[in-house]
Amino acid sequence: MSAAAVERPHEDRPLIAEANRIMDRLPGYRVEIIGGQIIVSPPPDGPHGEALTDLVLPFAASGLHGTDSKVIQGTGLWLPTGTEDYAIPDLSVVDADYRDQYVENNCYDPVCFRLVLEVTSSNYRTDLRDKVKAYAAAKIPVYVIIDRKHQRLHVLTNPTGDDYESHWPHSPGEMVTLPKSIGADVTLDVAEILKAGQPKID
């Protein structure tokens, strides 16, 4: 169970206002604010979605989408790195009472997040660098990256400052069991997930 939500002053939010205008103009694009910078990501390709669906299944099968926690795609995470910063992870495991942790702009307090996961696209550097710092600063206990460009699955744990003390890259052929701190045993087949996420090569 998570702590009480932090009250935030209702003041002008120029970056969020601009981010919301961009979303209105570019339906399907993901717009985030990280480090005071607006980041716009194009709609993901089919293999990205396929890999994400293949990832949801073991999380749900483990019981994480139940009475104590929920498995959610594309929900906003309020970040402590700036007054308007927020990210939208591809997949999150959150406490079941996450709705009590609403902050603003469809975002929730990081205190209720047990794990965030990103499947990389063309903007893979954001997931591998900027979001590592942002999620560590938010004290997200587990950050998983499906790095489709470099064919690796990364598991980052033990956030300290703006980095993670533990960062383990895994290659195809490995089976990765995620930390039990997320609330259940979840084992991922690196080769299967990366295969699902591979675009067709002409």
Q: What topology emerges from the helices and strands here?
A:
Layout: H1 14-25, E1 30-34, E2 37-41, H2 46-61, E3 69-73, E4 76-78, E5 86-87, E6 91-95, E7 102-104, E8 107-108, E9 113-119, H3 124-137, E10 142-147, E11 152-160, E12 163-170, E13 175-177, E14 187-189, H4 190-196
Parallel strand pairs: 4-8, 9-10
Antiparallel strand pairs: 1-2, 3-6, 4-5, 6-9, 7-8, 10-11, 11-12, 13-14
What does this protein structure show overall?
Strand 10 and strand 11 form a beta hairpin. By secondary structure, this protein is α+β, with helices and mostly antiparallel strands. The protein has a 6-stranded mixed β-sheet with strand order 3-6-9-10-11-12. A 4-stranded mixed β-sheet has the order 5-4-8-7, with no helix packed on it. It has a two-stranded antiparallel sheet with strand order 1-2. Helix 2 (46-61) packs antiparallel against helix 4. The chain contains 4 helices and 14 strands. Helix content is 24%, strand content 33%.
Can you describe this structure in just a few lines?
The chain has 202 residues and is α+β, with helices and mostly antiparallel strands. It has helices spanning 14-25, 46-61, 124-137, 190-196, and strands at residues 30-34, 37-41, 69-73, 76-78, 86-87, 91-95, 102-104, 107-108, 113-119, 142-147, 152-160, 163-170, 175-177, 187-189. A 6-stranded mixed beta sheet has the order 3-6-9-10-11-12.
Mean pLDDT comes to: 93
State the order of secondary-structure elements, H for helix, E for strand: HEEHEEEEEEEHEEEEEH
The largest pleated sheet is described as: 6 strands, mixed
Instruction: Note the beta-strand portion.
Output: 25-35%
| Structural category | alpha+beta
Q: What overall form do the CA principal axes indicate?
A: globular
Major sheet strand order: 3-6-9-10-11-12
Number of helices: 4
In which range does the helix fraction lie? 10-25%
Low-confidence stretches: 1-10
End-to-end CA span: 49 Å
Rg of Cα set:
16 Å
Instruction: Compute the number of strand runs.
Output: 14
